[in-house]
Amino acid sequence: MSELKEILRNRPPVETAIFDFFKVGPGPSSSHTIGPMKAGNDFYNKISALPDDLISKAAEIEVTLLGSLSATGVGHGTDSAVLAGIIGNIPEKCPGSVLQDIKKNPEKKYEIKLKNKSITVGLDCIKFGPVKHDSPYNNTMLITLLDANRNNLFEVEYYSVGGGFIQWKGWKEEERGKPVHPYGTMKELHMRLQETGLTMHELILENEMSITGLTRPQICEKLDELMDVMYDSVKRGLNNVGKLPGHLGVWRKAQAILEQYKTNNFEADRLMGKINSYAFAVSEENASGGVIVTAPTCGAAGVIPALLYAMRNDMSLGDRALREGLLASAAVGMLCKHNAGIAGAEVGCQGEIGVASSMAAAMLAHARGYDASVVENAAEIALEHHLGLTCDPVGGYVQIPCIERNAMGAIKAYNAVLLATAEKNTQHKVSLDAAIMAMNEIGRNMNIKFKETSAGGLAVSVVEC
Ligand code: SF4
C-alpha cells in the first residue's frame, strides 16, 4: 500500500489532448493499423525533407515489422496500413477501401515523389521480422530508405505505443500548452475539482482549451463530430450482413441480434439486446476495416459507441449530457493510458476492453448527473472486473474474442453504473488509481504470448474452421 502511495504521489500530470486520444480512422487495430499508417506517413514526410544529395540516391524503402506487429500484422492489415501511410494516406482521411485495394492487389507498385525524384513502393517492401527483439516497445517497426546497392541512407525506429499513438527513437513530446488544472491521478483530479468547484466535464474542457488552444465552441463542435462518427459506425454495422474478411468465416451478427431483441417481451432483455447489437455493429465494422473512433483503441471501439447510442436512443439522454459524459470518459481513459497502458500488446486486453468499459461507465454515470465520486466508483468497478484479461485474437484477426468482448464490456459498464449508484460512496473500498496500478502491474508481468501475438490462450485453443 505504501509503495502504491509513493508511485501515485510522484505522477506527472496528464497532458494528452482529447482529440489525440479519440482518433478517427480505419480498423481493425489502433496499434497495428492506425499507428503503422501514421508511422509510414511520418517517414514519407521525413524523407521528403532530406537534403537533395541523399534524395538523388534514394532507390527503395524497406519496412521491418517486429514483435506483435510481425506476429499478427497480416490479420490486422499492418502491411497494407504502413504502405498506405508511405504513399500519402493519414488515418482520419483514409477510407477502409484504400486498405482493401492494397490487399486485393499485392503485386501493385505505387510511385511516390521525393522532390524531383520518384521511387516505387509495394507490399513486397514490408518484411515480417522477429517477434522477440530488444527494442523498448513490443510494437516496433524499422523503416529504411536505401540506395540502389541497398546501403542505408536514412532510418527511423518507430514504436506503435497503443491507441494509434506513435513514437520513435529519440522522440520528444511535442511542446504545447500545459493543463490549467494539472492532475496525474484520480485522487489529484478530485483535489482539483474541490479547489475549483468545477464539474468533471468543465475541468477537462478547460484543460483541453489550455493544452490545444482550441476554444470551447471548437471543442464542442469536434466532440459532436466524433459522436457522429460513432453513431455512423453503429448504423453502418446494423445495416451490413455477410461474412467478415479473413479465413475464419465469422458472420456479422449485429442486425440479427437487434431483430431478435427489439420486440422481446422483457424490457431488460430489449435494452441489453440493443446494447449488444450496437457493440457488435461497430466491432464488425472495425473488423472489416471500416472507419471508427479509437475509444480508446480500434479493438475496443464498440464499447463506448454502443452505450452512447443507447443513451441517446433508448435512455432519452440529450446531446449536451452525452457530450459531457464523453468528456468524463476521456478523463478516465487518459488516466489509464498515463498510469498503465491501453494497448493489448503492452498490457493485454484489460487495457483495451477493460479501459473502454471503465470509460463507458464513467460516461453513463456522469451523463446521468452523478457526482465525481460515483463516476470514479463506476469506472473502477468496470475496470476491476476486467483485470487480468489477456489479448489472444484467433488467427490474428480482431474478431474472436474481440467482437463479443465489446458487447460484454458495454454491458459490464452498464452494470458497473448500477452497482456504483446503489452503494454508499463512503463504503466503496477500491479506488480507480488502485485498479489502474493493478492493471499496470498485471500487464507488465503478463507473458508475451497473451499480448496480441496470437501465441497463447484462445488463439491456440480454438480449432480454426
Ligand atoms: S483480444 Fe482485446 S486487446 Fe486483443 S485485439 Fe481483441 S479487443 Fe484488442
From TrEMBL:
Catalytic reaction annotation: L-serine = pyruvate + NH4(+)
InterPro entries named among the record's database cross-references: ASB_dom_sf, Fe-S_L-Ser, Fe-S_L-Ser_mono, Ser_deHydtase-like_asu, Ser_deHydtase_bsu
E.C. designation(s): 4.3.1.17
Pfam families named in the record: SDH_alpha, SDH_beta
Domain Serine dehydratase-like alpha subunit: 195-459
Biological or metabolic pathway of the protein: Carbohydrate biosynthesis; gluconeogenesis
Molecular function, one GO term: 4 iron, 4 sulfur cluster binding
Gene3D superfamilies, sorted: D-3-phosphoglycerate dehydrogenase, domain 3 (3.30.1330.90)
Entry keyword set: 4Fe-4S, Gluconeogenesis, Iron, Iron-sulfur, Lyase, Metal-binding
Protein name from the UniProt record: L-serine dehydratase
Organism (species): Succinivibrio dextrinosolvens DSM 3072
